[in-house]
Amino acid sequence: VFHESEISNGLSMLAGINYYNRVLLGSAYEQLGDHGVSLQKKYVQFAPHLRFTWRPGMYYYMKEGRKVNLGSRYPVFAWDVEQGANNVLGSNSIYTRSELDVQYKMGLRSGNLLYMRLGAGGYFYTKDVYFVDYSFLKQSNLPVERSEELGGVFQLLDSEWYNAANKYARAHLTYEAPFLSLQKLFPRVKLFQNEYIYYNMLFMSHLHPYMELGYGVATPYVNMGLFVSSQNQQIHRAGYKISLSLFAD
């Protein structure tokens, strides 16, 4: 349950309450208990939640008495915090989860663009917390003002790592160029719109670090990317991602 409102120009706040009811299933509960790990069978969390998003220098105009935001030339800052409360509607977990996310689009010469995304977060002042549930890290939300769908997130990271550590730090870089190589090699082919170079990095426990390097091509209807990842200085895997734009203008 949440509500979002704009406090002032470029500064918005989302306030709400999250309620989690989780039960350990299968053999994991018994196996961890045999190793001396103290766990509860059921975890209930009642957590007030706040998110502040600041877009400094936001441009806007008024239409029929309503404010319409146009965007900002500066970085976008977002801070997300959640506080677990004890003994509320059966809750039994106390914790503070805090995450920071910064996104920026920088224009370069010849129409090239550089997208940057930095983030960090963690659980603090925890008491009896088994389920780690991040907001910015787990979501595949794209960098601000992007139509390309492959940058700013991890493409080959195993799903279990998204909720596997009490702290993390991440960084993403995406370089966009309309004339990087393909237009020079195939000057008569008008299908290629942009080319991309991706670099993603993640630090958390047992990952020191996790890295991804990728190359992508955008066409009017299909975006394609090839990626290779390394984990703790060793090649981890390679893969590809295809994004379809069936309803492109």
Describe this structure in words.
The protein is mostly beta strands. Helix content is 4%, strand content 55%. The chain contains two helices and 13 strands; from the N terminus they run ββαβββββββαββββ. The protein has helices spanning 28-34, 182-185; strands at residues 2-8, 11-23, 42-54, 59-63, 66-71, 76-84, 94-107, 113-127, 167-177, 194-204, 207-218, 222-231, 234-244. The strands form two sheets. An eleven-stranded antiparallel β-sheet has the order 1-2-3-6-7-8-9-10-11-12-13, with no helix packed on it. The longest helix has 7 residues, at 28-34. The mean pLDDT is 83.
Count the strands?
A: 13
Please identify the structural class as seen in this structure.
Answer: mainly beta
Shape descriptor: globular
Computed CA radius of gyration, to the nearest angstrom: 21 Å
- Would you identify the regions where 5 or more consecutive residues have pLDDT less than 50? none
State the order of secondary-structure elements, H for helix, E for strand.
EEHEEEEEEEHEEEE
Number of alpha- plus pi-helical segments: 2
Question: What's this model, at a glance?
Answer:
The protein has 249 residues and is mainly beta.
Task: Give the arrangement of secondary structure elements.
Layout: E1 2-8, E2 11-23, H1 28-34, E3 42-54, E4 59-63, E5 66-71, E6 76-84, E7 94-107, E8 113-127, E9 167-177, H2 182-185, E10 194-204, E11 207-218, E12 222-231, E13 234-244
Antiparallel strand pairs: 1-2, 2-3, 3-6, 4-5, 6-7, 7-8, 8-9, 9-10, 10-11, 11-12, 12-13
